[in-house]
Every structure is written in C-alpha cells, then in structure tokens.
Amino acid sequence: NCVVKPLKETCIFVPQFETVPRCLNNSILTQIVSDEAMKQYGSTYIPASYVKYIESAGSRVMPIKLTLSTAEYENIFSRINGLLLIGGATDLETSDFARVSKIFYRLALKANDAGDHFPIWGTCLGMQLLTVLVSGHNLLTTATAENVALPLNLTQAAFSSRMFQGFPEELMQALQREPLTGHFHHYGLSLKAFNQNKELMNFFSVISTNVGENGVQFISTIEGKRYPFYGVQWHPEVNRFQWDSKLSFPHSPHAIQLSSLLAHFFVNEGRKSLHEFDDPKEEALKLIYSYTPVFAGNFSGYEQIYFF
C-alpha cells in the first residue's frame, strides 16, 4: 500500500471578527504498526515527519488513538480543527484505521453540511481511504510507483483549484516538469475506475494524474468539489523532513516550496474551523508534546517515530 504519515493544531489570531487569540488543534490519526521491527515500540504510530510538517505551518498536533469509543471520537471532533489521514499499510475496509476514519468522515460531512467548516487531508493510504469512504467500495488497482519522485500531470481543474490557489506560476510550471512529488505506493485509483464511479465523479475533482510502472494511469491529487477534503497519492511531508539517502525524497528548492505551501494551505483550512477545547489543561494533555519520538533511522525509512 503506502509508506509514510501526520495530523495538526495551531495557535493563531482568528478571523477579522475575533480579537481574542485561540489555539487551533488539527489531529493526525495514528496508524497501525505492520512492520515487525517496529512492533516492540507500540501497536500504532505517527512518523515525526507528519508532525513537523503540520507544525511548520504554525499548527499544533493532537494524535488520535484507535481504541476509543464513538462518543469519545465525537467529543474529540468538536475540539479539533482538521484531520490528517496518513500513509501506511493496512486494510481500507476492515482495519481500526478505516473504522475510526469513517467515524470522523461522517462527522465532517454532517458538520460541513451545517456550515461548520472542517477539513480532512489524506496522504497516500489516507487518500486511498477517502476514495473508499466516498464510493463505498475499494476500487484500487495495482499502480506501482515505489520509491520514485515524479512531476505531476496537472488537469485543467488544477489551475482553478483551492489547493494550488496562489501558487507562483514558476512553481506550477516546475510541478509539471520537475520530480517534486515522492511516490511510495503499490496501489492506486486508476483514472478509468474514477470515471466509472458516479459517487467519486460527483464528489471529487481530479487535480493531477501519473502513470505507474505497469502503465496504469492513476489519480495522484484530488480535491472535494463541495467539501474541504483533499487527497494526494504522494508525500509532501518528506520533501522537508525525511532524509534517507536510499529513498527518493525530493529536496530541491521547488520541492521545499511545494511542501511548505501545501502545509500552510491545510493549516489555513483549519483556521476556518471554530472548534476548540473548553479546558486549556485538558487541551495541553492531549497534544503531541506529551509523547517522545523514538529514533528510527536504524530500522526504518523515518528519522523519528511517535509510538502509542
């Protein structure tokens, strides 16, 4: 499936009509440990690169564990300002990661329908999961792009998308010509499967495609038409926060700029949410600062990992 993962929260001065500073909390759903070398440290994890990615845009991170009740997830939802679904390798229909994601997905749909802005971002496996949640089916096929950096084949929709709004023209050109996006996946949603599914067609705009090693044209970037839901089959966080020389992490100036702008975009989407904690002490205990990352460079492609 996929190889990388984060979530978030941030302290800012909110919209024009508010003068009191408040703290935004964006969450990252923990991922199930599947690598034998990692199991001694915990059953779920978040790579630190995701955390740094969100924090770099001025947001704090609150991890969400997979062992809570539905009522507890509903309580968390009312206090956070966005959700990041990270990469990994787990079942998209039967795993706890899928089950908990579905709870937040339904809460986000209901909230946005009521005018309560709540963004969701899916990276790699997270994007794949969004397509399963929207369509009700696992439509993935083999679309291998394993350990390779690629330019994106942008669609016309990319140039009017929210995700790339305000990107410099030079970066938009570089995005189509330079290998700025790191891919680490065996599966993907083919453009053909997308175009044959009414639910997906109605819900998402296709922002970019790529071609896998086996010749399959797969969707690499999506954006919700009505809802603030976004997905990338690639990993923007690795551009700035992962350094394994054996892996194809893009580190060029344009790659760094791309990663930074997308992090700021997602955090700014969270700024539109007015969810907040009632108790600052409870809030402080929920943040990622209560956990210590483990050095993982000697047994994984990550420098640091948070285990839970």
From TrEMBL:
It comes from the Eukaryota. It catalyses: (6S)-5,6,7,8-tetrahydrofolyl-(gamma-L-Glu)(n) + (n-1) H2O = (6S)-5,6,7,8-tetrahydrofolate + (n-1) L-glutamate. Its main location: secreted. It is found in: Secreted, Extracellular space. Coiled coil: none annotated. SUPFAM superfamilies: Class I glutamine amidotransferase-like (SSF52317). The keyword Ribosomal protein does not apply. One of its GO terms (molecular function) is gamma-glutamyl-peptidase activity. The active site is at C124 (nucleophile), H235, H235 (proton donor). One of its GO terms (cellular component) is extracellular region. Keywords: Hydrolase, Secreted, Signal. Its EC number is 3.4.19.9. GO terms for biological process: tetrahydrofolylpolyglutamate metabolic process. InterPro entries: Class_I_gatase-like, Pept_C26_g-glut_hydrolase, Peptidase_C26. Belongs to the peptidase C26 family. This is folate gamma-glutamyl hydrolase. It comes from Hippocampus comes.
